[in-house]
């Protein structure tokens, strides 16, 4: 094969990888990617603390205003305030937990023992 073909292949690969990185950056920047919530900046009164997608059409958004947090359920058809006026944690606690490892998963809830269902006989 001609070296020009290899050069064109490498150039096309670099272009495609660059486009993938650009789209990923844009998705995180504009809050389209899961876990892409932006941290609050100093001096701002309003900010998004966390975003959690529920399904393809709904997401939970935790919004902080001054020293209060509000939990919103956003969907394509309507928006709902789930809880308003949640006391925000102190700023030093928020900064400390953001730098630590992710919190451990909550323990699983105990399941009730399933009732034994007797096998049904087939009709004759």
TrEMBL record:
<dbReference type="GO" id="GO:0005886">
    <property type="term" value="C:plasma membrane"/>
</dbReference>
<keyword id="KW-1133">Transmembrane helix</keyword>
<dbReference type="GO" id="GO:0044781">
    <property type="term" value="P:bacterial-type flagellum organization"/>
</dbReference>
<keyword id="KW-0966">Cell projection</keyword>
<dbReference type="Pfam" id="PF04347">
    <property type="entry name" value="FliO"/>
</dbReference>
<protein>
    <submittedName>
        <fullName>Flagellar protein FliO/FliZ</fullName>
    </submittedName>
</protein>
<keyword id="KW-0975">Bacterial flagellum</keyword>
<keyword id="KW-0969">Cilium</keyword>
<feature type="compositionally biased region" description="Low complexity">
    <location>
        <begin position="103"/>
        <end position="124"/>
    </location>
</feature>
<feature type="region of interest" description="Disordered">
    <location>
        <begin position="99"/>
        <end position="124"/>
    </location>
</feature>
<dbReference type="InterPro" id="IPR052205">
    <property type="entry name" value="FliO/MopB"/>
</dbReference>
<keyword id="KW-0812">Transmembrane</keyword>
<dbReference type="InterPro" id="IPR022781">
    <property type="entry name" value="Flagellar_biosynth_FliO"/>
</dbReference>
<keyword id="KW-1003">Cell membrane</keyword>
<keyword id="KW-0282">Flagellum</keyword>
<comment type="similarity">
    <text>Belongs to the FliO/MopB family.</text>
</comment>
<keyword id="KW-0472">Membrane</keyword>
<dbReference type="GO" id="GO:0009425">
    <property type="term" value="C:bacterial-type flagellum basal body"/>
</dbReference>
């Amino acid at each position: 094969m001609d070296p020009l073909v290899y050069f064109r292949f490498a150039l096309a690969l670099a272009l495609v990888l660059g486009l993938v990185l650009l789209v990923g950056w844009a998705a995180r920047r504009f809050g389209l990617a899961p876990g892409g919530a932006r941290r609050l900046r100093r001096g701002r009164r309003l900010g998004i603390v966390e975003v959690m997608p529920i399904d393809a059409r709904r997401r939970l958004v935790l919004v902080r205003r001054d020293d209060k947090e509000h939990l919103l359920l956003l969907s394509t058809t309507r928006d709902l305030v789930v809880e308003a006026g949640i006391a925000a944690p102190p700023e030093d606690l928020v900064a400390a937990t953001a730098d630590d490892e992710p919190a451990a998963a909550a323990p699983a809830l105990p399941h009730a023992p399933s009732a034994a269902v007797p096998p049904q006989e087939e009709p004759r």
